[in-house]
Amino acid sequence: MNINILPDFLSIVPSEDLSRTWPANRTIMLRITSKQIKDIIDKKYFPTFIYLKNIKPVDINFIMNRLLTLVTTCQIISLDLPDFDMNLRFEKFKEILSKCKLNKLSLYNNNLGDIEIESISEILINGQCSVLHLAHNKITEIGFKSLLKILNNGQKIDLNLCNNKMGNEYMYEGIKSIELCSTLENLNLCYNQISNIDIDKILLHNIELKSLDLSQNQITTFNFNISQNNIFILENLNLSYNRIGSEGAKNLSKILVKCKILKKLNLSYNHICTEGAISIIKQCTSLSHFYLASNMITDDSMDKFSQVLIRRISLTNISLNGNMISKDITNNLIKVLGYRVKIIYL
User: Fold this and answer.
1) Please, which residues have CB within 8 angstroms of residue 331's CB and are 6 or more apart in sequence?
2) Whole-angstrom distance, CA of residue 53 vs CA of residue 106
3) What is the dihedral of CA 182, 183, 189, 193, to 10 degrees?
4) Is residue 306 exposed (0-12), middle (13-18) or buried (19+ Cβ within 10 Å)?
């Protein structure tokens, strides 16, 4: 059951019927005045997904009180509260959180610091939360060490820590702790001023990691210590807007050769040049999407690059905008790749 607290606070609207006591595909509009029906619904204790956005600050206290009532009648398993400035109302939020059985918690842009994160970790440590989105907050090394209690409890997790204070300048030890987590399925650390992180260690310890986003950081090169037998199931890697360069791309290729099912790779805005692009595509045999915008790719070695591309039969999209490729070379690449591969110019 999805519950949206509407601006007039008049309605609770289940979007799908989970009860089996009503005909299938029936939508029930439940007004506050419908007390008899409400009592029936309350006794069912439905699994409930709550998503609230664009709430006026003057209404947030009312919302908190409403949520406190809902947790007594609904089994809240997903809680998505963006832009609530939660730290100002955190004591009441802790009470709500302690009564939920969450699979997903999303607190985007809530001004949360280390103290609040430690409290959240203590509440969720023994739960089954598999999606934890804490982007655009103020989490540093201390807060992240608290999160390790959740990340190492055996539950596979989708973790989003985009735009926090996770960079090496703030929390070198915290970054090292991320590398040693073992339960990550999706990890987003974009826009964190990270300059040094060992992708090989992340992959080695998180053998079921499918998606990794390290875009908009300051990464220049990659360490690797991978044995011949290591194979990873990573499907999506975003390293756009870093400082990888041609040599960094060559080091990265030694890791990517172990990612046998990698489908999407974004290296835009990294100055990897044509040789760097060639070293990458040689190792990535399963790519469907390859993003190379603004990488100082020139006409030099483009013949060699196109000959490698044509052998990648899974490739369907490649972006090359913002490079220094002449019109004649571009037209020739289109002829070589044919209609099978779409060249994207964004």
Assistant:
1) none
2) 12
3) -20
4) middle
d(CA 89, CA 75): 22
Q: Which residues fall within 8 angstroms of residue 142, CB to CB, at 6 or more apart?
A: 114, 118
Q: What are phi and psi of 203, to 5 degrees?
A: -70, -40
The verdict on residue 4 lying in a domain is: yes
Domain ranges, residue 17: 1-86
Residue 281 lies in a domain: no
Is residue 71 included in any domain, yes or no?
yes
Query: What's the pTM value of the predicted model, to 2 decimals?
Result: 0.85
Q: Of the ranges 32-46, 49-63, 298-312, which one carries the lowest mean pLDDT score? A: 32-46
Domain membership of residue 38 (yes or no) is: yes
- Please compute, for residue 301, the number of CA atoms within 13 A of its CA located in the half-sphere on the CB side: 12
d(CA 157, CA 103): 10
Phi and psi for 273 in degrees, rounded to 5? Answer: 65, 175
pLDDT at 333 over 60: yes
